[in-house]
Amino acid sequence: MVGKDNLLFTNIAKKDKKKLSSLGTVHEQSVRHIPLQKACILDPFASSPLQPSDCEKFNYIIFGGILGDHPMKARTKKELSKFCKTIPTRHLGKEQFSTDNAIYVAKEILEHHKSLKDLNYQDTIEINIAKGESIILPFRYVLINNQPLLAPGFKEFLKKQKMF
Q1: Most C-beta atoms within 10 A of its C-beta, which of 4, 36, 40, 52?
Q2: DSSP-based three-state secondary structure for 134
Q3: Name one GO molecular function term (predicted).
């Protein structure tokens, strides 16, 4: 979606570095300890939305990747924003996106100068994983041709999981 040269993984355990190295640059330390110039933290509880004009202000967009709680518990603020007071924060609206969709939306805003209202969304999706079984994902997804944007192979991955 953004390319290997534009993706930085941080706070990654040694055992997982190799898995991610083909996708981007991998650091074991927290982003809090990496000196990034002109960075912005995407925080759902930030006071200002990400705007097309921000493309000139920021070289790095930091995505928390802290999913799981519904409703949200402000973990990006607790785990990241409060420790990085010199780094500006922005939000992508009131709803929580999956991480890949947040990256897509930020790219559309910053590279294609779209606003949040220019995109179409679906809040909460249901994916059938077996006959009579489905999983509900309570996040916001971008709609592309009236279909939620999902990573290639994501539905198949969910169907193979034994935890449901």
Answers
A1: 40
A2: strand
A3: protein-arginine omega-N monomethyltransferase activity
pLDDT per position as a tens digit, 43-68 = 888 999 999 999 999 999 888 765 56
Q: Three-state DSSP class for 74?
A: coil
Are the C-beta atoms of 136 and 126 separated by less than 8 Å?
yes
**Count of CB atoms situated within 10 Å of the CB of 49:** 15
Residue-wise pLDDT for 109-121, tens only, equals: 999 999 999 999 9
Whole-prediction pTM value?
0.86
What are the residues facing 39 on neighbouring strands? Answer: 60
Query: What six digits make up the tokens of 121?
Result: 């969304």
Distance CA 119, CA 144 (A): 9
Using alpha carbons, select from 130, 127, 108, 133 the residue that is nearest to residue 119: 108
